[in-house]
């Protein structure tokens, strides 16, 4: 069991007497605890970050990049410990934790370090010298579904840009933030450049968003919470970057390779137990081929093992918490009540498992405006929506308030043409691989700004014009 403190000014800092337990969702066992932070804890962390800012901002870029690379190396060296921690605190299957939950932050931080040498830190436009400088103190607020990746996607570019950071990790899965803090010390990051304040969103998150000493807030989480961050941050007119929810459509065209479209499509719908903002939770299929596709989907779904997340063969573990379990179950029940046809899974408990498990579910004949087709469920629930023609498919794909991700399967040029019509921040064509250097972010209520690669670095920089 890990009993953590805040991390402020380069050292562990006790909080008050109130603490928040961290629970293994597979067993219900308490695996750790963190202090329930206060606005005063945020004040101390911001003061430490502001004190460290001048020195870190003036550190030459190659030295900052070397620190970020050492952070990447440190994550890789502690990969086994990190993967086990993520599995224990939020239930991600251990194989997925090893291959994705750890590999992504290793890769993204190394990619940022490598960007530094060729990035246009300065450029000349006519008689102007355009200089890119750090924003200042960055407040980072991160979620539980990819607890380390979401932290590193903010912290690595913020530090490379010369900013200092105050992090509020999720209280659901906060344990890896402590490991990262230890890694930053070993990497040679100056005291105060990275700080961690544990606690809840309404207390610590709002204190960070409102703090006059914080120059920027980068938030990943629900659209509802993101709206609140924007409102609170507006009083100080600080920069706000939001990576929010999604309800991504996977458009399967008539000329698609159905076997590949179904296999990859289901995998991306149920990735991390469906607890992924980019999950392709709507599968749009030609109406005349729905039954053929459903047969293939059910056959593929039967190969998804639900069980103990520490077992390497498990593909879907528990939901991150009992609250999330109840949320997903309620959506499954709503889908049934609204007339969707259950072809796999459905309401009820997972036989033989007592943790925060749900039955992975596939609905067919889902109406495009149904609740399960419009709202983010954040669980292993796939809605199959038939369409009459390509024009209707595009209309359905763009019919939600979200625009984070999506997919198209079909003849390559045909699929690319349809992908251009989707109002979403990223689209995979025929299973195109995730690119750690490509900009990541959304349209509409999926947020603003971009993470990862050059675009992710630019989010944490101010631009100054010097006329000569």
UniProtKB/TrEMBL annotation:
UniProt cross-references to Pfam families, sorted A to Z: Aldedh
Keyword entries, A-Z: Oxidoreductase
EC number: 1.2.1.83
PROSITE patterns linked: ALDEHYDE_DEHYDR_GLU
Spans annotated as Disordered: 1-22
GO function term, MF aspect, one: oxidoreductase activity, acting on the aldehyde or oxo group of donors, NAD or NADP as acceptor
Active site (record annotation): 243
Top-level EC class as recorded in UniProt: oxidoreductase
Domain (Aldehyde dehydrogenase): residue spans on this chain: 17-466
Family from the record: Belongs to the aldehyde dehydrogenase family.
Name assigned to this protein: 3-succinoylsemialdehyde-pyridine dehydrogenase
Taxonomic lineage: Bacteria, Bacillati, Actinomycetota, Actinomycetes, Pseudonocardiales
């Amino acid at each position: 069991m890990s009993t953590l403190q805040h991390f402020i000014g380069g050292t562990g800092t006790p909080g008050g007497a109130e603490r928040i337990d961290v629970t293994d969702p597979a067993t219900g066992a308490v695996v750790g605890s963190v202090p329930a932070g206060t606005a005063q804890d945020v004040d101390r962390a911001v003061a430490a970050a502001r004190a460290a800012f001048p020195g870190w901002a003036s550190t030459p870029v190659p030295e900052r990049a070397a620190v970020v690379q050492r952070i990447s190396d440190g994550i890789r060296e502690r990969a086994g410990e990190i993967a086990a921690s993520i599995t224990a605190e939020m239930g991600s299957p251990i194989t997925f934790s090893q291959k994705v939950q750890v590999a992504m932050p290793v890769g993204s931080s190394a990619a940022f370090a490598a960007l530094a040498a060729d990035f246009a830190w300065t450029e000349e436009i006519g008689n102007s010298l355009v200089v890119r400088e750090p924003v200042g103190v960055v407040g980072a607020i991160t979620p539980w579904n990819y607890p380390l990746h979401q932290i590193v996607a903010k912290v690595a570019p913020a530090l490379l840009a010369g900013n200092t950071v105050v992090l509020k990790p999720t209280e659901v899965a906060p344990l890896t933030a402590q490991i990262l803090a230890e890694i930053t010390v070993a990497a040679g990051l100056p005291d105060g450049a990275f700080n961690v304040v544990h606690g809840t969103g309404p207390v610590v998150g709002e204190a960070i968003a409102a703090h006059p000493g914080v120059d920027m807030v980068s938030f990943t989480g629900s659209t509802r919470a993101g709206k609140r961050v924007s409102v609170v941050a507006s009083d100080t007119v600080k920069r706000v970057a939001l990576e929010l929810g999604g309800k991504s459509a996977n458009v399967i065209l008539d000329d698609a390779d159905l076997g590949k479209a179904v296999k990859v499509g289901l995998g991306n719908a149920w990735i991390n137990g469906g607890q992924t903002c980019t999950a392709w939770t709507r599968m749009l299929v030609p109406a005349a081929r729905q039954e053929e596709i459903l047969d293939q989907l059910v056959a593929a779904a039967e190969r998804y093992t639900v069980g103990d997340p520490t077992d390497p063969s498990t593909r879907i573990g528990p939901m991150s918490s009992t609250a999330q379990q109840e949320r997903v179950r309620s959506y499954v029940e709503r889908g049934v009540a609204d007339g969707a046809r259950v072809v796999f899974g459905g309401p009820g408990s997972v036989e033989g498992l007592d943790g925060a498990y749900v039955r992975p579910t596939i609905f067919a004949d889902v109406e495009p405006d149904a609740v399960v087709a419009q709202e983010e469920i954040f669980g292993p629930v796939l809605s199959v929506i038939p369409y009459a023609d390509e024009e209707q498919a595009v209309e359905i794909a763009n019919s939600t308030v979200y625009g984070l991700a999506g997919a198209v399967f079909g003849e390559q040029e045909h699929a690319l043409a349809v992908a251009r019509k989707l109002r979403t921040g990223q689209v995979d064509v025929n299973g195109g691989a995730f690119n750690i250097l490509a900009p990541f972010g959304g349209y509409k209520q999926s947020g603003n700004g971009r993470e990862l690669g050059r675009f992710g670095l630019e989010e944490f920089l101010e631009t100054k014009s010097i006329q000569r």
